[in-house]
Amino acid sequence: MNIAEDIRAYQPYNIQEEKDRKIILDFLERYDDAFERSNELAHMTASAWVVNHEKNKVLMAYHRIYDSWAWLGGHCDGNENCLEVAMKEVREEAGVKTVKPVSEEIFSLEVLSVDSHYKKGNYVPTHLHLNVTYLLEADENETLFVKEDENSNVAWFYLDEAVDRSNEKWFKEFIYKKLNQKLRETYEND
Predict the structure, then answer these.
(1) Over the stretch 67-82, which tens digit does the pLDDT of each residue have?
(2) Alpha helix (H) ranges present in 31-171?
(3) Percent helix, percent strand, percent coil in the chain, to nearest 5
(4) pLDDT of residue 153
(5) How much is the pTM?
(6) Which domains, from first to last, does the chain contain?
(7) Are strands 127-138 and 42-51 parallel, antiparallel or unpaired?
(8) CA distance linking residue 7 with residue 105, whole number of Å
(9) DSSP bridge partners of 102
């Protein structure tokens, strides 16, 4: 699996993804440390839009740093297999044991700005997350667990409710609504 090839082959869903894809590919070509947090300008991350089997609910965590309900995901930390990273993050952040890709193809691309903050007592400067999102499925009846150092709650929400629960206006308007729209368009007849 070569993530740059996967990103190159990905058909952007909208203008945001088209522009962000170009930025991500350019960054991957220029920086050998694109998958490491040591690159303080930007680094690769992987996220998951985790749905139940019926694809009418989304799994979200209440993120401590952002003080908002949010999707699951995290830093690649040297792992260039973004799908593997997204699945690992879902297991770690929500305690879900059984998670699988609805498709192994990229579901969405985003360049996300991250404001400066403190994490574990260390200052983290403002930077970009060059994000690859996958559509994953988990069992909504499985017991969920909070990852205390990152989130304070984990829960399933109906698609539109998941968007409404977020406190982050930009994510609601440009990411979560897009993910739900694409989900509905792609899987409405399942």
Answers:
(1) 899 999 999 999 999 9
(2) 82-94, 159-165, 169-171
(3) 35, 30, 35
(4) 94
(5) 0.94
(6) 3-187 (3.90.79.10)
(7) parallel
(8) 10
(9) none
